[in-house]
Amino acid sequence: MDLIIRSVTSQDFESIDSLLRQFALEEGLHPDTIKLDESSFLKYGFGPDKCFYCDLGSVNGNAISYTMYSIRFSGVAGMPILYLEDIFVSAEYRNHGFGKMLMDHTVSFAIKHDCSRLEWVVESRNISAQMFYKNLGAELRKDLIVSRFDIANS
Fold first, then answer.
1. Which of 67, 129, 146, 153 is most buried (most C-beta within 10 Å)?
2. Total structural domains within the chain
3. Is residue 143 part of a domain?
């Protein structure tokens, strides 16, 4: 079983939407919380306001995984950093090394774009994801607290 990883095209919305909804269900989110629609996928993924990158993983032509990420800048590092918003592999395809392949692909993108590091957030209750990241050699920082303003729903 071979995983093919490629950048999404404007034609891949349905595949990303399906995988994102699987991911949300596993995270305990209601499907109505997913606000990504085809219009915003095209606007922010392919238009002049592009602000995310997305890769799709497929096995035998079936979309089974994705990553979504963006480039930020760190004044402290004086360089860009890559923020990984999502990494997801459909449950039936886990434990085949596909998650590691996706992460390696994302790290290669970060290196190509001169990023100093790769960052992401993991749910505190998602112990299997934490173990996956630790096994990859990631540092899980307990000294940081995620903070945000929910501007879109204000």
1. 67
2. 1
3. no
